[in-house]
Structures are given as C-alpha cells and as structure tokens.
Write a structure and sequence with these properties.
Layout (H helix, E strand, L loop, with lengths): L12 H13 L5 H38 L8 H18 L1
Length: about 100
C-alpha cells in the first residue's frame, strides 16, 4: 500500500459536526477514518453509476438493433413502467 499523503480540507460546520458524531458514536476512531470511508463510498457509488450506465447503453443498443430488424411490436407505456418497477425491486432485493 502506498504511503498516505496528508491533505488539508475545509468542510462546513454541519459536516464537521457529522464527522465528530461518527467518532463520538464509535463508528470511527479518527477524522481521517471518516473521510477515508466517505471517499471510498463515493468511489463505489460512482463505479456503480458507471456500471449502470454501461448496462443501460447495452440494453438500448439491443433494443435499437431489434427495432432495425423489425422484431419490435406494439407496446404499452403502463406495461413498460410495470416491468421497470419489477426489475428495480429485484435489483434492490439482490443488492
């Protein structure tokens, strides 16, 4: 692991209070731990969003290709919304 490099940041009073609370509650020992974990979570969130965007693009490309091939029939907006909600529930359960 690379040696840690010091970084000085200024945060609003509200976030400083949040950091102090994490330490007081015992979920973290130091300010550095809180900030490190927050940055790791941000990176994970961004990686997840990027992954989802790639998946959506793949699905759109498949749909466009199916449309070009004439494989697409009539659709109902209500059915699409229902299917989307069903998939979202399944993803939430899995995640």
């Amino acid at each position: 692991m690379k040696k840690a490099r010091r970084l000085t940041v200024a945060i609003p009073a509200e976030l400083n209070k949040f950091v102090r609370l994490r330490i007081e509650e015992g979920s973290h020992k130091t300010e550095d731990e809180v900030v490190r974990d927050a940055l790791l979570m941000l990176r994970e969130q961004e990686d997840f969003i990027t992954s989802q965007q790639r998946q959506f693009r793949r699905e759109i490309a498949i749909g466009l290709e199916q449309a070009r091939q004439g494989l697409v029939g009539p659709f109902s907006a209500a059915e699409i919304k229902s299917e989307g909600r069903k998939r979202l529930r399944a993803r939430r359960k899995a995640g």
